[in-house]
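Sample 3 of the quickstart, ligand 6-hydroxymethylpterin-diphosphate:
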Amino acid sequence: MAEASAPAAHDHAAPRIWTCGRHALALDHPLVMGILNVTPDSFSDGGAHATPDAAIEHARRMLAEGADIIDVGGESTRPGAPELEPAEEIARVLPVVEALAREGAVVSIDTRHAVVASSCLSAGASIVNDVSGFRDAAMRNVAAESGAGLVVMHMLGEPGTMQVEPHYDDVVGEVRSYLAAQAALLESSGVARGRIAIDPGIGFGKTLEHNLELLRGLPEFTALGYPVLVGASRKRFIGALTGQDVPAERLEGSLAAAVWAVTHGADIVRVHDVAETVRAVGVAWAIANGVPRE
Ligand code: HH2
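Result:
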């Protein structure tokens, strides 16, 4: 009789690939996406990298620390944040995207606006990270006409109102169905399946308990077959658990969440503290899967 098999160790021979424009990202180890906010009002590091030179310098540091992807955002999506004019968003992000792409970095553009996404793709970005999950038909067209990687995230409603008494009957089931439907919509618009990653959208219209349930339910997202991205870094639910009001002080909780995520099915973690995350996740991954082959 066959022995009950242990959880599948990682198959080094055939890594899954996330196709992001000219980059084929192997998912044989967790990828770290470094957050680059080119905004005066992000919740976590508001204004620290608001000029192009400061932002580019910070991105170079994150790349040196082991970031696989740099996620450039020009519009804060913190709860209640005002919506930005796309022209202003483009003015903030474009010089940064251009410079980093020219240096060979895998650049993701974090935007809800089709015109911003298309300008940044022309400037060399390889990934479109849309917190509104490609709800906008114009955004799906930009996606279909490009070869870019796409992050489809779940958000309940809009940033202005998402935290007003969010309710689900079954948060994991509902978020999972939404992501599956949005990914199918992209595929029916002509996007190759291998370009799509999904993200349960920690903090986007979720209570503390919803966030915890989503993290506990990660294997259900992995089961959809798309790479799974998790963005928990410095978020409010961590502060709620640790009693820390200042986002930049939430390092240990952020590392715990990243380690949990990669050991429960996440392929990509979106983080502020790259060096610390690379080390923490590297150790957790080695325990779970063995040492990656060079
Ligand atoms: N979280 C934020 C922004 N973009 N994208 C993805 N895919 N997943 C996330 O969880 C996610 C995201 C948070 O927004 P913001 O308030 O701008 O803060 P920061 O970018 O510093 O995390």
